[in-house]
Specification:
Layout: H1 5-19, H2 32-43, E1 53-54, E2 62-72, E3 79-89, E4 94-95, H3 97-105, H4 114-129, E5 133-142, H5 143-146, E6 156-163, H6 164-167, H7 169-179
Antiparallel strand pairs: 1-4, 2-3, 3-5, 5-6
Helix pairs in contact: 1-2
Length: about 180
């Protein structure tokens, strides 16, 4: 998703002045439309991932535990913070370690549901690396649930598993044991 910063600025200006009745002269809001536009452009512009692999044999689990990422809820456009645990069992080669974080970030190009995000991360890792198995567990703290509506401090946990993690309970158990209690 490419953010049209100019259009976002105009929309935020209108929201502030027409929707909230904020005066254009209020110094607290000077530059706010531009800041909000830059924020969305940054949030929806993750680094590219080239899925660089190395011809290394490794038959065990490779896991990135507790990667912190931020998404935006498509229903309220409020942010949510996630702790993402993503791992795979390589087939013929290993993925560069930093690429695990990048596969997570590459799915944050627009507002997204946590459930869809979790599925996309696991599927992307599984399909693009030809892994024996790939999995993703996400623990989310949603702004829309914390500051409005139900006002809970509870976490939302989602998971998605592919390959050996679906077929082999021992592999799945190892994944879940190594991430610890989310």
């Amino acid at each position: 998703m490419k953010v049209n910063k100019h259009e976002v600025e105009l929309a935020i200006e209108r929201l502030l002045t027409k929707g909230f009745g904020v005066s254009r002269d209020d110094p607290n809001y000077k530059g706010t439309p531009a800041r909000v536009a830059r924020m969305y452009a940054e949030l929806f512009s993750p680094p590219k991932n080239n899925f660089r692999t190395f011809p290394e044999k490794h038959g065990g689990l490779v896991l990135l535990r507790g990667h912190r990422a931020f998404g935006v809820c498509p229903h309220h456009l409020l942010p949510f913070e996630m702790r993402v645990h993503v791992g795979y069992i390589p087939e013929r080669c290993v993925l560069g370690l930093s690429k695990l974080a990048r596969v997570v970030e590459s799915q944050l190009t627009a507002p997204v549901l946590q459930e869809a995000f979790t599925d996309r991360v696991a599927y992307d890792l599984f399909s693009k690396t030809n892994a024996k198995g790939a999995g993703c567990v996400v623990v989310g703290e949603h702004g829309c649930m914390r500051c409005r509506g139900v006002r809970t401090t509870g976490d939302v946990v989602t998971s998605s598993m592919h390959g050996v993690f679906l077929l082999n309970p021992t592999a799945r158990e190892e994944f879940l044991r190594l991430i610890g209690r989310p």
